[in-house]
Amino acid sequence: MTDFHRIKRLPPYVFEQVNKVKAAERAMGVDIIDLGMGNPDLPAPKHVIEKLVDTAGKPRTDRYSSSKGIAGLRRAQANYYERRFDVKLNPDTQVVATLGSKEGFANMAQAITGPGDVVLVPNPSYPIHAFGFLMAGGVIRSVPAEPTPAFFPAAERAIMHSVPKPIALVVCYPSNPTAYVASLDFYRDLVAFAKKHDIILLSDLAYAEVYFDDKDPPPSMLQVPGAMDVTVEFTSMSKTFSMAGWRMGFAVGNERLLAALTRVKSYLDYGAYTPIQVAAAAALNGPDDCIREMRSIYRTRRDALVESFGKAGFEIPVPQASMFAWVPIPEKFRYLGSLEFSKLLIEKAKVAVAPGIGFGEHGDEYVRIAIVENEQRIRQAARNIGKFLKTADATLHNVIDIKRAG
Predict the structure, then answer these.
(1) CA nearest 229: which of 187, 271, 200?
(2) Which tens digit of pLDDT belongs to each residue from 67-76?
(3) Which of 224, 274, 293, 396 has the CA that lies 20 to 30 A from 147?
(4) Which domains does the chain have, with CATH numbers?
(5) 14 SS3 class
(6) What is the phi/psi pair of residue 84, to 5°?
């Protein structure tokens, strides 16, 4: 049987290879400290769960819901944007509830991409930013991930050398995987750039509330005057409220683009289960002490990671936001590449991390470490890695010998 066209366009899912090694170790009873997947381990807020339980089973809640989100949820998201960013949104035309930001991105790609359309995507970047467009028949051209002035000459070159001209540019700040944070000045330049070249901006703001400098919270691109003309921004309840499995997110911004997304979604889904949407509205409308507590826990874990891994000989650049550290592979292991190094960490240190190659070829000298285990487990991971690094030379000789024999 021939391979299917869309499946052939997708590269191998490298995380699956790491998962196989992890599963094999666990099958033998080994305790693996999993800092690989960005899967929050904190519980969802109590009042949100109570609202879910209270709503489930009520008349009509088991019926099909609204594909673009119930009105109360869209109003709650609009109110959140006004409180947090001072951005006014029309909940009827400028807010769409999505099944997480990942589904929102994939369906936006379906809505705007024609065969062969070029989309500019940071490298490294979260996989759906590129793969959503690849599955929709588009072509990806890489641009830098770091939000500095150097971004713009590189993006100009990408546009000049793309045929046809790119239709859209994806950005993600605070970034998964790199933890970069963009300033409002960068967004101003980005909006001007998009208008100059007549391209759409798609902003992934899933980590907007996971930041560690209270004086300088990450901005929204929609704070820039005129950004609404060219921008759709995606947010998620997964990290802010530890509701990853609930699959609840939003797309907000330009009315014409959101109308296209709504049209595509109307053919594909009937929206999330109504009690989940009601509970999500309660989260957005409710007290924000649970968000501050989440932030405090991740800050404590980040500090434990940086301090304990540094003592173990594995230097961690200090992330200012997100639940990730983007970490250069120690020099003596760099030639292995991130996939082999990640497998080695599981086998020798019993610690799982995400190989940087999974986020694009420019990530291959890095691993992404997620702070999704408690502080004690993070420190245990550091001890395991410290022991591994002390015996690294012998380990490397064995790896080299095995590769030569193979």
Answers:
(1) 200
(2) 899 999 999 9
(3) 293
(4) 5-43+290-405 (3.90.1150.10), 46-285 (3.40.640.10)
(5) helix
(6) -80, -40
